Structure formats: C-alpha cells, structure tokens
Amino acid sequence: MPAENSFIFARNYFQMTQKDLLSITKEFGSPxxxxxxxxxxxxxxxxxxxxxxxxxxxHYAVKALSNISVLKLLNSLGxxxxxxxxxxxxLGLKAGVDPSxxxxxxxxxxxxxxxxxxxxxxxxxxxxLSILEQFGSRYPETxxxxxxxxxxxxxxxxxxxxxxxxxxxGISIHQMPHLLRIVExxxxxxxxxHMHTGSDILDIGVFLHASEILFEAAKNFKDLxxxxxxxxxxxxxxxxxxxxxxEELGAQLTKRFKEFCQQYGKDLALAFxxxxxxxxxxxxxxxxxxxxxxxxxxxxxxxxxxxxxLIRPMFYGSHHEITNISxxxxxxxxxxxxxxxxxxxxxxxxxxxxxxxxxxxLSFSNAGAYCFSMASNFNSRYRPAEILWYDGKAHLIRERxxxxxxxxxxxxxxxxxxxxxxxxx
Length: 425
Fold this sequence. Notes:
The chain has 425 residues and is an alpha/beta fold. Helices cover 33% and strands 22% of the residues. The chain starts with a helix and ends with a helix.
C-alpha cells in the first residue's frame, strides 16, 4: 500500500460502536478495558508503510500493554517486542515471539538479570558503562546493542523525556571515548546502536536532529546490523489534536537512512520501538456512574473506579476524552469526573459531557497504553477485566480479579490471644 494511502487506511477500520461497548459492560461488568484489534492492526500497517527500507524492524514496547493476547496479535502481524525486564521477555516467549525478535533494554538492573535474558536468546541492549564493561569482559562473543543518550530534549512531559542531559537513561554521547575503550579492551561484538529521546514527539525536526547524532555515533562501530531510533510518536488525545506526522518522518528518515547505509557500505536494519502509537487509540475504559453529587460550585460524577485502574490523569496530567455512551444525545452539562479512591482522584475537571445520570456508562478514550499496565490494588480494589474486540466480537483476555487474588500471596501469622494478653500486662 502506498504511503499516501496509509493515513486513510488507519482511520477507516471496523470500529466498535457505542452499542457494542454497552453490551460489553452488560456481559462483563464494569469497570472494564476494551481493545480494538483492528485499530492496532491499522496503526502497525500505517507505521510500516511509512518507511521504504529493505529491512524494517518494529519492536512493540511491551510496557505499554502487556496482555499476552495483544502480544500474540502483534506477533501475528510480524511485529517484534521491546522489553525492559526479564519478565517481559518471558511474556513475549510465552506469546510465541521468536527470541531473535525481542530486544531487551533495561535500566539499572543487575548483571545477573541481563545474563538470564542472554540465556533466553533476546537481543541485549546496554545503557551504562559499568555493565557494558562487565558484560563485555565475560561475554565478548555475544552481540550487544548500545543505548546512546543524545542529550536532546523531546517528549510531552518531563516524566517521559528520557534523552536529555540529566536523564538516567543511556550512555552520554560525550562519553564516547570511554565507551570505545571498553569495546576495544574487551573485544566485544557491538551489532546495534540505539536511542530513545522520549514520548509524545511533536517536532520531527528534533527527532531528525537526534538521529544525526546517532548516525555520527554509528560510524565508530564497523560491524553493525541495525540502528534503533526508539520511538515516542505522539497520538491525538482529543478532536483536532496534533500528532506525529509519521508519513513525513518516514519520507525524510528513509532518505537519510539510505544515504547513511551507502556511506557505511552495508544495508542496515532500521528499527523502532513504538508502544503508545500502536495501542493507545485502540483502548476504551468503561466505568459506571455511582453517584451525581452537586456542590455549591461543581457537579461531580463519581464512578466505580479510580486512579488505581487509570493513573495517567493523576500521574502525568494526561487528557482522556470522556463520553457518556448511555446518553450520547443528551443535553451537555459540565461535570468533574472523579473516582472512588480516598484522596484526590480526578479524571477530568469541568468537562462538557452529555447529561450524566446515575447508572450511566462513561467511556474513556486512549485507554490502550500505560493504563491497565499501571493499574494496582490500591485501597484493596480488584483490577478490572480486559476485552479484545476481534473480528466483530468481544473476547475476554483477562478475568476480573477476586478477593482470593488479593490474598493469594499473603502469608497470615497467628497471634495467640494468651500471649497478646501477657505482653499487655
């Protein structure tokens, strides 16, 4: 499919209707996460169509949404995985992903964990000099990718900007002489070079600037197989919101990448690690309204969930569109949508939403990335179910937790009433 058509394709997929979503809450209860497999597929195809290179590697960032069924879906499309823990590597293997298509980029982990991943066969990506020297000294024949910090500030939030000078991620580009001495002294095999500047990239010029830094660094390594540019592509969060122009980035970076490969004397693989870009827009989070509470200044819509299930608004200040799918044509009013956690727990202040009644179902958009994966049992609440909308049907891919799940790994102590009384005396 030509690149100019991929944008259209990505927005003309088989969509879940509000009727479908209401049916899901009736069958599976609320709150509940729902993911549209067709949207994930469309995003993957749009991304792959944007880059015209001989060898394109897409590694999905598992941390965004780690459900095994989602990993299996992406694997069926030909997608590899980007992992940050040995547990994510094992999830990928359980989902049937070939270890050669899994890249492992941890931060601050022990050498023992890296060795465990090495035994599993995944591509190792190291981001600090200490571990690089230790690993290279022990395993000089094992191919290693090196994560560079280009010192470029990118990303929509300070918590997700990881390529700047004060970041804990990557080996500083200014430490290249030290890095090269380690490579030379250990005789280690460097087969890839990597960067990740941050999430929600708005200006592709900044991304291309960082890419030039990575190209310059790559010249120091004579036996590379791939260059990994990370990801961080922005998706829209509301009507008319801006997003990363993937087609424009694809055209410009493809041209520059081909020029570099010609200069390098070898056709390298071009790699990316999208997470949010592939799954964010596929997700809907559905919650029931428990109570409408009118105060002197605000109308609160209190729902049957909280930041224990969807922490992004409280943690990042992120925006999720909220729609009343039970009364979509109702007169619009202003509401503050809040959760049931016993501290400030706000999803949206003074949102204009179709009239909300107790018992209505609200739908949160962009709930596919960093939503369920960051959910917790805070306040001893159960984590919700997950549904994959595939081939026009709802498929349960994670059961709702129960009280037994809360206590499963707790070890109870027995306190004798007699001994307690004796101590009291």
